Amino acid sequence: MIRGIEHIGITVEDPDKAELFFKNTFGAEVLHRVVPYGDKSKHIAGDKLSPLQGFPPELAMTSVTMLRLANGPNIEIIGITPSITNQQRNIADAGFNHISLYTDDILAAGEKMRLNGATLFEGPNDNFSHEAGEGNQTWFGMTPFGLLIELIALPSGVETVGETSRWIPES
Q1: Chain centroid to CA 121: how far?
Q2: Which of 33, 49, 82, 123 could potentially form a cystine with 55 if both were Cys, beta carbons 3.0 to 4.6 Å apart?
């Protein structure tokens, strides 16, 4: 039986830059480094990973760092070689396109993102439909490494159509 999301993996051009962004912006902590960045002796060849997870055999995994991010899923930052170029994601992209981080102070969280190199879109914006309510807001920003992050605050809660309630991280 599934208990929930354990971690979210993000492959980036510069793993150190992404790690510093999560640490400096959101207070993330390094749990461990499966493949330490810069340690060539620990790189994992793609042909070794390909049968396990479909990793391209012509590439190599050059870093894997697991971060703890408050009360929610862990974030795994992955580096590969040859290096990739960061690609900005948006809501219109198929598949995984953003992560949403719950905050009690959307203005402060947005400012912290901006101070650490993120570009914030217009906002914060009042939520609508099932997420509408006093103080319920979202604000999107693009990290320096191309990840779209949604900041969300839902102090008034949300409506659901069934008996299951929406999970909100504890304070």
Answers
A1: 17
A2: 49
